[in-house]
Amino acid sequence: MSNLKYDVIVVGAGPAGLAAATVLAKAGVKVVVVERGQFAGSKNVMGGVFYSDCMKGIIDDFPGKAPVERHIIDQRVWLLDKDSFVGFNHKNELFNKKPYNCHTVFRAKFDSWFAKQAADAGALIITRTLAKEAIIENNKIVGIKTGRPDGDIKADCVIIADGVNSLLAKSLGFRKEIKRESVALAVKEVIGLDEKIINERFNVKSGEGVTIEVTGNFFNGEAMAFIYTNKKSISLGVGMVVEDLVKNKINPNDLMESFKAHPSVVPLIDGGETKEYLAHLIPEGGYKDMPKLVGNGVMIAGDAAMMVDAIHREGSNLAVTSGKLAAETYLEAAKTGDFSEKSLSLYEKKKLKESFVIKDLKKYKGVPSLLQHNKRLLQQYPKLINNAAYEILNVNGISKNDKEKLLWKNMKSQIGVSNLIKDLFKLWRNVG
Amino acid sequence: MHALVFIKQVPDASQVRINYETGTLIREGVPAILNPYEVHAVEEAVKIKQKFGGKVTILTMGPLQAADALKECLSRGADKGYLLSDRIFAGSDTLATSYALYEGAKKIIELEGEIDFFFAGKQAIDGDTAQTGPGIATRFNIPLVTYLTKLDEVNLEEKYVVATRLTEFGQETLKVPIPVFFTVEESLNILSHSPLPWLVKAAQSKIEILSGENVDLDKNQCGLRNSPTIVKKAFTPEKKQRGATLTGTFDEVVDQAAEKVAPFLNNIL
Fold first, then answer.
1. What ipTM is given for this predicted complex?
2. What pLDDT, in 10s, does the model give residues B166-199?
3. I need a surface site. Which of A106, A117, A209, A312 has the fewest CB within 10 A?
4. Which whole number is the average pLDDT over B54-68?
5. Contacts of A151 in chain B (CB under 8 A)
6. Is A296 in the same domain as A269?
7. Residue A239's pLDDT is what?
8. How many C-beta neighbours within 10 Å does residue A122 have?
9. Last residue of a domain, one of A334, A363, A392
């Protein structure tokens, strides 16, 4: 029998786990990270925007030598219709000031870099090893069983950060099977293009980047898409809640193909060569779907805890922050050596609650079900808005007054005044 | 018993694409892995160690990131990893690589003692030449068993092995004196699941870096300048089209076939 014993076991080498491990290792805690993939980042996917602020207190002078692609200075939103979009954007020179607000990153590279920082700080990173279940003694988690011979590891505390499918959170009964309406399946394609061409097409200089978030009736109001610029490639993604994929019998690859063929997208990716194709689940259930976060000897962070703010495409920063807070909670608890649920509840009741993580998730807690149950919001309105823009801008001899009347008539017949009031009110209550 | 396994870190071939314009491999973003044949070479060396005792040393040549591949070997039960890394080796073909690894291996004999078994994969999945292993064996002037599929017997006292290798015509079983050099097939063994403590030990281990300075080198045999191989073009062979299936009665099928063949015959006759 092996006698592997550490202060803390972190399960999963993603942003949440590596943030926790780095903070702990820097504080001199004996910490081991157990990762299922070939290397940290090998199984990890996200759209690509990583916010810098969350790295404060974890990595000095971030990004430093971290493998980041472009810092984002121009953020656009498109409401996409069949042949058109209505968009708005915000480009600001303030986003060109260091420290940069956010960068596009490739997770395979970024997470391996982050793992290296954790290892350099003294954390032990074990890859190719699956954490199968928790070892429980006297109603307290005292370690984990891995899929390997002699594979038990003991610890005072386990931080679970094994991602959206969290085996451990499930095996502990902290959360139920994921509901189909709580997760989105996103596919992503990386299209290689010359750096200069990207700069010209997106009207930026080298190093500067653009993000475009896309929704609207083009996807029948049920999918979200994005276009992000990297140094020498563009990431395109489309995601749809699994329930809707099943209900509509849609394959996400077909969504991607139709997105790539849209007349507003074609000129951006023309001549590019597909370099990578990826897919991943995104927990979008938000606050209402969060599992139990703390138990005797255990805390849960990141995607495993459903910490994704889908409205603002934020997830990795919530993961990093929750990982950091879990680590800080451990350091507090270590002062008394009490790792009971009561002692560790500091993580949920105070640290997370006072951070933006829970505040944001709570603020938008109604949005996932609002969008799920009120498809009109992303189906009919974007279409009306596109039509309105076209009517107003297309000069064809009809007076502006008559055009406005026509548009209002269309709105009344397609949506209705009472629905409009209800929708505005619900939106205001859930998002405002 | 002392086994030395030569390994190579290669791009994961299942994810490699070819740039059709330049004919070169696209390696950007592609994760590097331990050459799959060498995983089996390490496995076999560790099996011998578990039976007879002794140690398994690993040697590779490459950039500093190749240390990851060495650590994987350690996690699979090897004892020590050496990385031969220097700009002087950049651009080496199989001739220059086998020279550099030969000199590296001589250094390892000096540091770690005489070697009974040399192992390498039958080839690397990124180049597929199958030349580097035999190149090293030839420089050492020791018996070489390529395409090893089974190690039937190891006799350390009488210093021989009985080994089966794959040939173009079937299998061949040979009795060979030690020291011996093997290049191995994947069918040689079934990979075992390393115990967790091995992974912990590997993660904590340090890889020894050998630079050009540490090794007794003839610089006129190193690097791109001394690599006579020139890659003129790399391409994926065109896919052969599947034959068409003709249906109908015998006469109809004959007619259809004749009409399809006639244009070609017209050209030739």
1. 0.84
2. 999 999 999 999 999 999 999 999 999 999 999 9
3. A312
4. 95
5. 195-196
6. no
7. 93
8. 16
9. A363
Distance CA B18, CA B30 (A): 12
Q: Rg for chain B (alpha carbons), in Å?
A: 23
Question: How close, in Å, is residue B32 to chain A by CA atoms?
Answer: 10
* Alpha-carbon gap, residue A312 to A304, rounded angstroms: 19
**Residue A222, phi-psi category: left (phi > 0), alpha (psi -120 to 50), beta (remainder):** alpha
What was the pLDDT predicted at B20? 54
Our count of domains for chain A comes to 3
* Closest CB from A108, A148, A152 relative to B193: A148
State the nearest Cα–Cα gap between B199 and chain A, in angstroms: 7
Residues of chain B contacting A38 with CB distance shorter than 8 Å: 31, 33
Longest dimension (CA), chain B: 79
Q: What are phi and psi of B236, to 5 degrees?
A: -90, 130
Structure-token pair, residue B84? 């031969």
Same domain, A276 and A403: no
A196 residue type, one letter: K
* Distance from the A32 Cα atom to the nearest Cα atom in chain B, whole angstroms: 9
**Chain A interface mutation, best of B70, B73, B199, highest count of A Cβ atoms under 10 Å:** B199
Domain that includes residue A113, residue range: 4-67+106-175+291-363
CB A310 within 8 A of CB A164: no
3-state helix, strand, coil split of chain B in percent (to 5) is 40, 25, 35
Q: Answer whether B18 touches A (CB < 8 Å).
A: no
Number of CB pairs, chain A paired with chain B, less than 8 A apart: 57
Reduce the DSSP state of residue B1 to 3 states and report it: coil
Give the model's pLDDT for residue B29.
55
| Kind of pairing between the strands at A208-215 and B32-34 | unpaired
Q: How confident is the model at residue B244 (pLDDT cuts 50, 70, 90)?
A: confident
B211 pLDDT more than 90: yes
Q: Which residue has the tokens 């870096």?
A: B209
Low-confidence ranges of chain A (pLDDT < 50): none
Alpha-carbon separation of residue A397 from A304, A384, A405, B106 (angstroms):
58, 21, 15, 89
Which residue has 């011998």 as its token pair? Answer: B48
For residues A196 and A242, membership in a common domain is answered with yes
Phi, psi of A44 (to 5 degrees): -100, 135
Q: Quick check: B203 and A126 CB within 8 A?
A: yes
Tell me if chain A has a CB within 8 Å of the CB of B204.
Answer: yes
Predicted confidence (pLDDT) per residue in B93-145, tens digit: 999 999 999 999 999 999 999 999 999 999 998 888 999 999 999 999 999 99
Smallest Cβ distance to B199: which of A106, A126, A190?
A: A126
